Amino acid sequence: MKKLYFFKSSLLTLLLSGFAFGQGTETFESQTALSSSYATGSFTGETGGIVWNYTNARNESTYPITNKGILFQASGNTLETTISNGIGKLSFDVRKAFTGGSNNRKIEVLVDNVVVYTSPTFGKAQTDATIHSFEVEINKSEAAVITFRNAGPQLTLDNISWTAAGIATEKPVVSPRTITGTYGVLLPDGAVTATNNPTFWTQTGILPLGITFDNGVFSGTPEQAGTFTAQVAATNQYGTSDPATITFEIAKANQTVDYNFEALVQNQGTTFSGLPSQTDQGLNIVYTSADNSIVSINGNSLSFDGIGSTTINATAVSNNNYNEFSTTFDVSVTDPNATYCFEETFDGLNGNNTSTAGSNKAWNGNSNFPTVVTVYQAGNAIRLGSSNNKGGITSKVLDQIAGNVIVSFDVKGWTAIEGSVNVTLGSETKNVVYTAKMADNFETQTVSFENVAAGSTLKLETSAKRAFIDNVKIQCSTAENSTTWDGTAWSNGTPNLTKEVILHATPTESFSAKKLTIERDMIIPAGITITVENEVVNQNDVTFRFRHGAYLIQKNNSAVNVGPAMFDRSSTPIYRLENLMWSSPVINQNIFEISPNTLTNRFARFLESTNDWTENVTATDNFKAGELISFRAPNNYNNYGEGDAQVFESSFRGQLFNGEVTIPVTKTSKGNNAVGNPYASPLSLDALIAANISVGVNSVYVWTHSKPIVNGAYQGSNWAIYNGTGWNDNSVTSQNIDIAQGFIVKVANAGNLVLNNAMRTSANGPVYYKEQKDRYWLSLSNNQGKINSSLIGYVNGSTNKFDQNFDAQPFDNNNEGLYSVLNNDLFVIQGRGDFNNEDSFDLTFNVKKAGTYQINLEKFEGVFENQNIYLVDKKLDKVFNLNELKSYSFDTKAGEINDRFSINYQNKTLSTNDLSKKGLVVYAQNKQITISSKESIKSIKLVDISGRQLQNIQNINIKNYVINLNVNPQVVVVVVENTNGTTESRKVILK
Description:
With 991 residues, this protein is an all-beta fold. The protein contains four helices and 79 strands. The strands form 18 sheets. Strands 1, 2, 3, 4, 5, 6, 7, 8, 9, 10 and 11 form an eleven-stranded antiparallel β-sheet that branches.
């Protein structure tokens, strides 16, 4: 029943006067506006001066709390009034109305249109008459607009009461709190509470961008993710409170894409360019294929190259405000020219193949598959097997099918994979392994059978328990599925991976074939790529020659080729003393025959154990699969400065290498192992690195011979270096190794490096980067050109410590060049984790001659489109903006200088610690170390990198000192103790 209040006259007078100061009630007993229909309107409340306005509400119907009440129809309906003299504590009762839903009722309280309270959800399933009472501390001494807003389905509101705002007797106390939000989403609750009726608020500290503070409330939409701290103080007539800490935890938002990444099915030879290139937030999406032989990717365009199924991964990296976006979708490539002699689609069957309860009705077979064992209907598909038994289907007698045929079918497993599928056609059985599960799309499997006898049957059977099967097809005999090129047309339609191809003339465009037979002399021109599923046959030993830039890809690692092929290779122009590093795409190619005019003592192999070259090649040596051989240009070529450089041309002839190649790698020294591309097509470095996790490929070094030898010395570094951060040289835009190219891999562990056909690709470049990483390239140059390049990257997965997959040191520390420094070691590629503009690091450069040099900002990507890069010259005590300057010129003496330059991102002037480094200069030249200090030197110790002390010189007491050392080339740490008690160290390289 209602709470009835009886007062004596004096008490009633006091209470009524109290209402004038803000206290009151609303029990809805006196109003007559609310009826049995939902409406919008108003009524005069039972507390003097109060008018209530409501939207889409009615009377309590059969869901009362205490007699009369108000019932809201839906989320967003409101009851609102203005309390002119302030309000203290607000109390009210609510209950669930009607029967729909469970635990989904909720009400909000707003003060001056700002949410100050949201109730817990309530209301059990069906009818629930539980009454829920809530209180809200508001404590506002001025006029306040009070709004009750429904935040769910129907509910009843009753027994509203409020007290007057408290009367302050001392200064306020502000309550600290943590406010949570999400980047780009309106802050849901930013109210700050304080006692003793504040009349004025102040805020200091750092707020997220987009957030403002007014009269005790933070509001707005965060435009910055992260943790931020502010201080809030409140003032009344008695003084100002102590500041309270308000912490903001603004979470990164999830990236979204306004696109449905659904499964794609397209014919071989087609493309699809409808994929989005960016998320809705503007970050680039990178697409990768699980099998490039089936679907290859260029940007956001898919090329359907092979026949079968694979998975595409779409990823957009995270940044300061958004989480990483990642999703996958399936793609299937069908043969547009296939002719099927048998086909079963299981159309019209009941159930489904997406739930555990969707395939319980038995299937008894049909005319195509009259014999079935433990088979169930599964929604236009079938389920083979049960939780305890395997299942199978056997076809009718196939009188019309004979010869070489292809069986294809769609398959996926139960909630987990429960074995494989055995496919039997005639007398031969093949086992098919699949990866798709119940929640996935079907994957298409293809199986080839040769010499099938007419009158055979086809049987599909699970090896263990359950699997779903659909779209069983048999492609007609390949005796009718071959095509011959005569120079003008194909005899049986365009070739593909299901057709055998016979060449009688030189092809004019790229093509694919199941098997390739060459029966006439021909030369394949540059720009053509031939892709073959199985073997290449040159039975009659005719001329089958590939010009430089023409390629042949094979997919089946087990295919055995017959007869020879020939591959032409050309270098960029070189001089006599320059080296090439090649490998062979054919078997039994003699090494010396590649360059007959090269001196025989100028052929070499690289040894990991010594980290050096050895001239151990003999006249009878042939290239091994995946072997790198270094050799000097022909001895009759021009020296540098004595004529033009010349293109070196040679050819490889023999049977094609194909399939998996295993190369033992060691880690007894630095882990640098020589490797070569053994295939007649380019090799993907990304695929090589990803497939050899066991040995841990840190970096790949490719010799470019881009810097000539002058007076016996290379004019800069010739090594292009690649790892997970990218190439150290921004002019290299392909992640593929060309045919017959040798290279060095740095490994973390001894073991076997494996190459296989899955790493082969159809083009060597330019293959442009498909993603914009946060990175930039610096180079060192002089008036003779660029000496070397270094890459700095802030990429996902890296840290500012040494990272196996993202940091790379120079191949030879004796080379001239510019390097970044990490833990006193030099790097040409350095990944430094997520970008932070507080980051900084040192640079070291090494030059052989005194003179004028330049540090250049070659290229930048990602965050550095809008972030300046500052070069600190400690010698001049100045900072330069490389984004504006592009190139900074300076003069220097010869040697390795490791204390002059550093990089930062905030235009910071030199710190005291940085300035102190200018006080000690150490450099090495001709086995002589020169030390110069601004302080008088007390002692000098020389230590090698193993910690062994080389010299200890005491009682020096001068500022400049020279040490002569008769030692092998090595890294030496120079430790200088000054007479003022300070100690500094520098690392130098003795050559």
